Amino acid sequence: MHDVPQLPFDAAIAAIKAQVPERLQSPRVGIVCGSGLGGIVNSIQDLHLVQYNTIPGFAESTVPGHKSSLAFGTMGGVPVVAMLGRFHPYEGHPLRVVVYPIRVMARLGIANLILTNAAGGLNPKLAVGTIVALHDHLALPNMTGMNALLGPLTSPTHQRFIPLSDAYSPGLRRLLFLGAHHLGLDPDAVTEGTYAWVSGPTYESPAEGRFLRLVGADVVGMSTVPEVLAAREEGLDVMALSLVTNAVVIPETYRDIRAEVAAELAGKPVDLPPAQVVSHEEVLEIGKAKGEVMMKLVEYVVSAIP
Ligand SMILES: O=P(O)(O)O[C@@H]1C[C@H](O)[C@@H](CO)O1
Ligand SMILES: Nc1nc2[nH]cnc2c(=O)[nH]1
């Protein structure tokens, strides 16, 4: 396999192998832990952490809820590597840096990638805490010049034109729903849907939320899609799970300030609606509260991959 120009793959692999026992150096499954979902590491046995700042080419995650280390170990006896902390374009990381760890994990030998993220719910049927297995995505940045695969071909043996109609593995999703059944989860606890990728770091304005819902997205977030593209280019099977941490506020009407002022001037009482704003603290809190279900599902899928 040839390397992406200017990315120090050989040095990264050497640095990792120098810190990880040989039995764990060729993981089968890669896992990316989303905001507040780092607790997945608790189900890794024989744990060995490698700090990102010791791996050539890796950046540091600057987002609360994202640590900056790779976790090597086993899950149900299967060798795995988990990213405790990912890179987002809104932190200022170039897209090739955002997806570099995925390419490094591919070079370590993973065949399957499980991505997790925290996301806002656009579909009103999705309660906070629901886990959504992505069956599709809608990425306005991809369609308007922010595609992670723009630029020189990754290597002469990589494909230039990557289909995305089959990006999210039906086989892995099948294992997920078998897992939900075996774990006795409520049928509504895990479902499937379409993820809208936005660059962030702002959360959606009401009109943006309304637009994304109208064009078919069920959840919205600021990560995952660049990683999916790189993973597919590397030939990995991909599953992506969103934890709905908040409902995106999509009001049918706006506050009518003009009417409120008129009522005030006429001496009539004015009922003010409660302000609804999302915060990263809330996202992390729900991640912590509901992360265990995500962890158990990931554990089940990893152990069940043939
Ligand atoms: O890394 P993920 O996608 O889980 O993080 C989400 C999206 C933003 O980075 C952040 C917003 O609260 O959480
Ligand atoms: N864009 C976006 N990302 C999120 N991550 C967690 N919640 C949200 C949200 O409401 N919007």
From TrEMBL:
Pfam families for the chain = PNP_UDP_1
Q: What class of enzyme is it?
A: transferase
Source organism phylogeny: Eukaryota, Fungi, Dikarya, Basidiomycota, Agaricomycotina
Q: In which pathway does it act?
A: Purine metabolism; purine nucleoside salvage
* NCBIfam families per the UniProt record, alphabetical: PNPH-PUNA-XAPA, PRK08202.1
InterPro entries xrefs: Nucleoside_phosphorylase_d, Nucleoside_phosphorylase_sf, Purine_phosphorylase, Purine_phosphorylase-2_CS
Enzyme Commission number(s): 2.4.2.1
Report domain Nucleoside phosphorylase positions: 28-250
Task of the protein: The purine nucleoside phosphorylases catalyze the phosphorolytic breakdown of the N-glycosidic bond in the beta-(deoxy)ribonucleoside molecules, with the formation of the corresponding free purine bases and pentose-1-phosphate.
Under which name does UniProt file this protein?
A: Purine nucleoside phosphorylase
Instruction: Kindly list any coiled-coil regions of this protein.
Output: none
Q: Which UniProt keywords apply?
A: Glycosyltransferase, Transferase
